[in-house]
Specification:
eight-stranded mixed sheet
Amino acid sequence: MIGATNGSSTSVWMDTASVPVFPPLQGDIDTQVCVIGAGIAGLTTAYLLAREGREVVLIDALGIGAGETGRTTAHLFPPDEWYGFIEDKFGAAQARLVADSYARSIDMVESIVRDEGIGCEFERVDGYLYALPANGMKGTHDLGKEQACAARAGVQAELLARVPGLPFDTGPCVRYANQAQFHPLKYLDGLARAFAARGGRIYGGTHAHRIRGDHQRQAVSTAGGEIRAQAVVVATHTPFNDRVVMHTKQAGYRTYVVGLRVPRGTVPRILLWDTGDPYYYIRLETPDSARGHDVLIVGGADHKVGQDDHPEHRYDEIERWARERFPMAQETLYRWSGEVMEPSDGMAYLGRNPMDDDNVYVITGDSGNGMTHCTIGAMLVTDLIMGRPNPWSALYDPARKPVHGLGDFASEQANVMARYGDWLTGGDVDSVQEIPAGEGAVVRDGLRRIAVYRDPGGALHAVSAKCTHLGCAVHWNSAERSWDCPCHASRFDTEGNVLHGPAPTPLEKVELAVEPAPRPDAPRGGVRRPLR
């Protein structure tokens, strides 16, 4: 029920909500603040600034909620890294700041919902973390430590013998009281209307190509015109205006979600996640049109972007996990995937953009807590633009060094460097004739690698496999029908258009040499490269 999106799958949110559509920018304009990105980070920032009386222009390459916000599972729950890790690495004082920022972000969402009368199914629920049986006594010890650290940080947390109300025994768990969930696109619909009612201007289908300027004024270049502003907020999930610095500090991962029909009332309304790596997580949704059933939303099976060409098996793994634990689950209603940016030290990057003028801000590094971190980022950046001190600014400073995640940092950089070795390998197939309809593959042509998609009608669409960010070779993603970069998580559609940054421009179009059509009786080949 929304327009262009960044993938071919459909989430339960996209299927059960509509959002306003805004025309693209036409002509140059002036404003006080330009916000780039109309997901929860950008819209919340724009709304808060407009509420402060600032003149704000909001643009998005696709439209309201068409990026990762429409693909989240919309949990508002404790940090992925756990309070135990945060206290060990950053200290108890910083852990208290994290807990404060998380609690206040949930309060902010709740207050906006209330003040603006947004019908987005916002609901306070308890969250539960449980240890996998394979962790044994170590898992129980870790949970005890986590509960103690969370309590020291000021979180209402308690250790229980098991998660109540579930059809399987989780064993010991930590209960985090008063967390929350909501319908993210209904929330964005209300936010957009509230922002526009305060004089905010929104332009969809408006791709920002470049930001340039000085500490007094910035100019955002788009195909439809230039936006001149005193401050710019880049809320595009990962910044497109930074070629290197921020992209060495975080890595993009795909995460997968399955929505299963369950009879109403058979699964408790809670948030649940385990200690696995990657972990599984669940919540419930009750669509307006549902008659006697809920949707059990189950996610997990993460992997680095561009490093599994055929990830459909991950949906099967999630569904198998869910059906083993929730025998009341009926048919599968939804399958979709999204993208998270994992910061090297576990803390999001919210504030002034490093290596840039001090009036350019970024909100990135969501680490699987996108709805929470994006709201924190909007609150923090609003304070900075308004000239107010913010207690969390040093904690989330994008310029900080990855001191507390050096092992992960080194591992991610080694992984990136290894991906450049793809230029020395052959193609996925020897000939474009081997590519089935509805699939894509990379073909070697001398020194070039060409990304070729064959549409359902049989026509070929060819683009350079060279990512326009830093030149890594893209890979096919058969689940989302996209070309994904395994180095820094850029994604492109089958025509080469940018779906997800940091790539600033589309993949280059390529003219294919005409090849003879295969004989009708000739066997059709497939993509032969093993899964990564």
